[in-house]
Specification:
This protein is mainly alpha-helical. It has one domain (about 10-100). The chain is about 40% helix and about 10% strand. The chain has 3 helices and 2 strands, in the order βααβα. It has helices at about 35-45, 45-70, 85-100; strands at about 10-15, 75-80. The chain has a two-stranded parallel sheet. α2 (about 45-70) packs across α3. It is globular. The protein starts with 10 loop residues before the first strand and ends in a 14-residue tail after the last helix.
Length: about 120
């Protein structure tokens, strides 16, 4: 678990291990969740699509409530087996989603296990 260094001490951690793992296939091993070959696989995966949809539905009201209460930090973490493919992809997608839907929210993204 990543350490929460924010003053609010709250957030979410999501487990990506149930989703198709591109890292188990040799052709994807040299890539990460930031690379197009992995994106292409995960973009076509129905479980990943539903997973992200569910996360967006959880995060939306949390961000709105945090903003209305004057909170400055909300931590969201993703984990998977190696921290290279699924969790990286999910974090990148959430960052993009927040930036598109909450223009006044600054997103800091850290990949703790990305090589």
């Amino acid at each position: 678990m990543p350490e929460d260094e924010t003053p609010n001490g709250g957030g979410f951690i999501f487990d990506c291990r149930f989703i198709l793992n591109p890292g188990r296939h040799p052709e994807f091993m040299p890539f990460t969740g930031k690379d197009k070959p992995v994106w292409d696989v995960l973009e076509s995966d129905k479980e990943m699509k539903q997973f992200l949809k569910n996360i967006f539905e959880i995060i939306d009201p949390a961000i709105k409530k945090y903003l209305s209460r004057g909170f400055t930090d909300l931590m969201v973490g993703f984990g998977c087996t190696g921290g290279q493919h699924r969790s990286v992809y999910a974090a990148e997608k959430l960052k993009s989603y927040i930036e598109q839907n909450f223009k006044d929210v600054a997103v800091t993204l850290r990949h703790l296990d990305l090589l």
